[in-house]
Known about the structure:
By secondary structure, the chain is α/β, with parallel strands linked by helices. The protein contains seven helices and six strands. It has a six-stranded mixed sheet with strand order 2-1-3-6-4-5. A hairpin with a 5-residue loop joins strand 1 and strand 2 (13-18). Helix 2 crosses helix 3 (103-119) and helix 4 crosses helix 5. The longest helix is centred in the middle third of the chain and has 17 residues, at 103-119. The chain is elongated, with a radius of gyration of 27 Å. The model has no long low-confidence stretch (mean pLDDT 92).
Amino acid sequence: MPVIKIVDFNGQDAGEITLSDAVFSVPLHVPAMHQVVVAHLANCRQGTHSVKTRGEVSGGGKKPWKQKHTGRARQGSTRSPIWIHGGVAHGPHPRDYHQKVNKKVRRLAMLSALSMKVREEMFTVVKGFDLDKPSTKAMKNFMNTINAQKALVIYHADGNNLVRSARNIPGTRVINVASINVYDLLNSETLVVTPEVVARLEEAYAK
Protein backbone atom coordinates (compact mmCIF):
# COMPACT_ATOMS: atom_id res chain seq x y z
CA MET A 1 0.00 0.00 0.00
CA PRO A 2 1.33 3.49 -0.88
CA VAL A 3 2.31 5.58 2.13
CA ILE A 4 2.09 9.34 1.65
CA LYS A 5 3.33 12.04 3.99
CA ILE A 6 0.80 14.51 5.34
CA VAL A 7 1.77 18.18 5.56
CA ASP A 8 0.10 21.04 7.39
CA PHE A 9 -0.79 24.37 5.83
CA ASN A 10 2.72 25.61 6.60
CA GLY A 11 4.26 22.74 4.67
CA GLN A 12 5.56 20.97 7.77
CA ASP A 13 5.43 17.21 8.28
CA ALA A 14 2.17 16.20 10.00
CA GLY A 15 2.29 12.40 9.82
CA GLU A 16 1.57 9.75 7.22
CA ILE A 17 -1.43 8.22 5.52
CA THR A 18 -1.73 4.78 3.97
CA LEU A 19 -3.60 4.70 0.69
CA SER A 20 -5.74 1.86 -0.57
CA ASP A 21 -4.18 -0.32 -3.28
CA ALA A 22 -7.61 -0.74 -4.85
CA VAL A 23 -7.85 3.00 -5.58
CA PHE A 24 -4.35 4.47 -5.66
CA SER A 25 -2.22 1.59 -6.90
CA VAL A 26 -3.91 0.03 -9.90
CA PRO A 27 -2.33 -0.66 -13.31
CA LEU A 28 -2.65 2.28 -15.67
CA HIS A 29 -5.19 1.90 -18.44
CA VAL A 30 -4.37 4.59 -20.99
CA PRO A 31 -7.15 3.75 -23.50
CA ALA A 32 -9.80 4.15 -20.78
CA MET A 33 -8.41 7.53 -19.73
CA HIS A 34 -8.26 8.65 -23.35
CA GLN A 35 -11.84 7.61 -24.03
CA VAL A 36 -13.16 9.39 -20.93
CA VAL A 37 -11.24 12.60 -21.69
CA VAL A 38 -12.43 12.68 -25.30
CA ALA A 39 -16.01 12.12 -24.15
CA HIS A 40 -15.67 14.83 -21.48
CA LEU A 41 -14.46 17.42 -23.99
CA ALA A 42 -17.15 16.40 -26.47
CA ASN A 43 -19.87 16.70 -23.83
CA CYS A 44 -18.67 20.22 -23.00
CA ARG A 45 -19.51 21.38 -26.52
CA GLN A 46 -22.82 23.21 -26.85
CA GLY A 47 -23.33 22.27 -30.48
CA THR A 48 -25.23 25.49 -31.21
CA HIS A 49 -23.12 26.48 -34.23
CA SER A 50 -25.20 27.19 -37.32
CA VAL A 51 -24.93 28.80 -40.74
CA LYS A 52 -27.49 29.59 -43.42
CA THR A 53 -27.69 27.54 -46.57
CA ARG A 54 -28.59 28.95 -49.98
CA GLY A 55 -32.21 28.18 -49.19
CA GLU A 56 -32.15 30.34 -46.04
CA VAL A 57 -30.29 33.52 -46.99
CA SER A 58 -32.21 36.51 -48.27
CA GLY A 59 -32.27 37.66 -51.88
CA GLY A 60 -31.67 35.69 -55.02
CA GLY A 61 -35.20 35.76 -56.33
CA LYS A 62 -34.18 37.15 -59.69
CA LYS A 63 -31.71 35.68 -62.13
CA PRO A 64 -28.68 38.07 -62.05
CA TRP A 65 -28.41 38.25 -65.84
CA LYS A 66 -29.68 36.36 -68.83
CA GLN A 67 -28.34 32.95 -69.58
CA LYS A 68 -26.51 33.67 -72.82
CA HIS A 69 -24.71 36.36 -74.83
CA THR A 70 -23.26 38.32 -71.89
CA GLY A 71 -19.74 36.88 -71.91
CA ARG A 72 -20.10 35.98 -68.29
CA ALA A 73 -20.62 32.65 -66.57
CA ARG A 74 -24.23 31.62 -66.21
CA GLN A 75 -25.76 32.35 -62.83
CA GLY A 76 -29.14 31.36 -61.52
CA SER A 77 -29.22 33.06 -58.12
CA THR A 78 -27.22 35.37 -55.89
CA ARG A 79 -27.88 32.90 -53.07
CA SER A 80 -25.26 30.58 -54.53
CA PRO A 81 -22.33 29.83 -52.19
CA ILE A 82 -19.89 31.30 -54.73
CA TRP A 83 -21.49 34.74 -54.34
CA ILE A 84 -20.75 37.24 -51.61
CA HIS A 85 -23.62 37.13 -49.10
CA GLY A 86 -24.67 33.82 -50.57
CA GLY A 87 -25.41 30.69 -48.58
CA VAL A 88 -22.78 28.40 -47.05
CA ALA A 89 -22.24 24.98 -48.57
CA HIS A 90 -21.76 22.07 -46.17
CA GLY A 91 -21.54 24.39 -43.16
CA PRO A 92 -22.08 23.42 -39.50
CA HIS A 93 -25.56 23.04 -38.07
CA PRO A 94 -26.81 22.42 -34.51
CA ARG A 95 -26.00 18.91 -33.33
CA ASP A 96 -25.48 16.90 -30.16
CA TYR A 97 -21.86 15.92 -29.48
CA HIS A 98 -22.67 13.81 -26.43
CA GLN A 99 -20.69 10.59 -26.08
CA LYS A 100 -21.73 7.80 -23.73
CA VAL A 101 -19.09 6.05 -21.64
CA ASN A 102 -19.85 2.95 -19.62
CA LYS A 103 -19.61 3.18 -15.83
CA LYS A 104 -16.89 0.53 -15.65
CA VAL A 105 -14.75 2.46 -18.11
CA ARG A 106 -15.25 5.70 -16.18
CA ARG A 107 -14.29 3.97 -12.95
CA LEU A 108 -11.21 2.40 -14.52
CA ALA A 109 -10.12 5.76 -15.94
CA MET A 110 -10.56 7.48 -12.57
CA LEU A 111 -8.54 4.83 -10.73
CA SER A 112 -5.83 5.00 -13.38
CA ALA A 113 -5.59 8.79 -13.12
CA LEU A 114 -5.39 8.73 -9.31
CA SER A 115 -2.82 5.93 -9.35
CA MET A 116 -0.73 7.81 -11.90
CA LYS A 117 -0.57 10.88 -9.65
CA VAL A 118 0.59 8.75 -6.72
CA ARG A 119 3.11 6.86 -8.88
CA GLU A 120 4.59 10.09 -10.26
CA GLU A 121 4.79 11.57 -6.73
CA MET A 122 2.50 14.42 -7.71
CA PHE A 123 0.04 13.63 -4.91
CA THR A 124 0.04 15.85 -1.81
CA VAL A 125 -2.11 15.34 1.28
CA VAL A 126 -2.59 18.45 3.42
CA LYS A 127 -3.97 18.18 6.94
CA GLY A 128 -6.28 21.12 6.39
CA PHE A 129 -6.51 24.59 4.94
CA ASP A 130 -6.31 27.03 7.86
CA LEU A 131 -8.11 29.91 6.21
CA ASP A 132 -10.36 32.00 8.44
CA LYS A 133 -10.77 34.39 5.54
CA PRO A 134 -9.75 34.45 1.89
CA SER A 135 -6.02 35.00 1.51
CA THR A 136 -4.31 34.63 -1.83
CA LYS A 137 -0.95 35.34 -0.18
CA ALA A 138 -1.31 32.47 2.30
CA MET A 139 -2.46 30.08 -0.41
CA LYS A 140 0.37 31.04 -2.72
CA ASN A 141 2.93 30.61 0.07
CA PHE A 142 1.59 27.11 0.70
CA MET A 143 1.79 26.23 -2.99
CA ASN A 144 5.37 27.47 -3.13
CA THR A 145 6.27 25.52 0.00
CA ILE A 146 5.10 22.20 -1.45
CA ASN A 147 6.44 23.17 -4.89
CA ALA A 148 3.05 22.70 -6.52
CA GLN A 149 2.87 23.45 -10.23
CA LYS A 150 -0.47 23.76 -12.01
CA ALA A 151 -2.20 22.38 -8.95
CA LEU A 152 -5.64 20.82 -8.67
CA VAL A 153 -6.95 21.33 -5.13
CA ILE A 154 -9.83 19.11 -4.02
CA TYR A 155 -11.82 19.91 -0.87
CA HIS A 156 -14.59 18.00 0.88
CA ALA A 157 -16.60 20.56 2.88
CA ASP A 158 -17.29 24.29 2.68
CA GLY A 159 -14.53 25.62 0.47
CA ASN A 160 -15.61 29.22 -0.10
CA ASN A 161 -12.47 30.72 1.48
CA LEU A 162 -10.31 28.18 -0.31
CA VAL A 163 -11.85 28.91 -3.71
CA ARG A 164 -11.54 32.66 -3.25
CA SER A 165 -7.94 32.30 -2.06
CA ALA A 166 -6.81 30.25 -5.04
CA ARG A 167 -8.77 31.76 -7.92
CA ASN A 168 -6.15 34.44 -8.62
CA ILE A 169 -3.23 32.00 -8.63
CA PRO A 170 -2.36 31.16 -12.25
CA GLY A 171 -2.77 27.50 -13.09
CA THR A 172 -4.49 26.58 -9.82
CA ARG A 173 -7.95 25.02 -9.91
CA VAL A 174 -10.16 24.20 -6.91
CA ILE A 175 -13.05 21.74 -7.06
CA ASN A 176 -15.23 19.79 -4.66
CA VAL A 177 -14.63 16.07 -4.35
CA ALA A 178 -18.14 15.52 -5.75
CA SER A 179 -17.03 17.19 -9.01
CA ILE A 180 -13.80 15.25 -9.49
CA ASN A 181 -13.23 14.11 -13.05
CA VAL A 182 -10.51 12.46 -15.10
CA TYR A 183 -9.94 15.47 -17.35
CA ASP A 184 -9.07 17.81 -14.47
CA LEU A 185 -6.80 15.18 -12.93
CA LEU A 186 -4.84 14.70 -16.14
CA ASN A 187 -4.84 18.39 -17.01
CA SER A 188 -3.10 19.24 -13.73
CA GLU A 189 0.35 18.41 -12.45
CA THR A 190 0.12 18.45 -8.65
CA LEU A 191 -2.93 16.99 -6.91
CA VAL A 192 -3.61 18.47 -3.46
CA VAL A 193 -6.19 16.75 -1.25
CA THR A 194 -7.15 16.41 2.39
CA PRO A 195 -7.37 13.12 4.36
CA GLU A 196 -11.15 13.46 4.23
CA VAL A 197 -11.02 13.57 0.43
CA VAL A 198 -8.88 10.43 0.40
CA ALA A 199 -11.45 8.71 2.59
CA ARG A 200 -14.28 9.81 0.27
CA LEU A 201 -12.45 8.49 -2.78
CA GLU A 202 -11.68 5.17 -1.15
CA GLU A 203 -15.28 4.83 0.00
CA ALA A 204 -16.57 5.56 -3.50
CA TYR A 205 -14.11 3.57 -5.61
CA ALA A 206 -12.69 0.78 -3.41
CA LYS A 207 -14.14 -2.61 -4.24
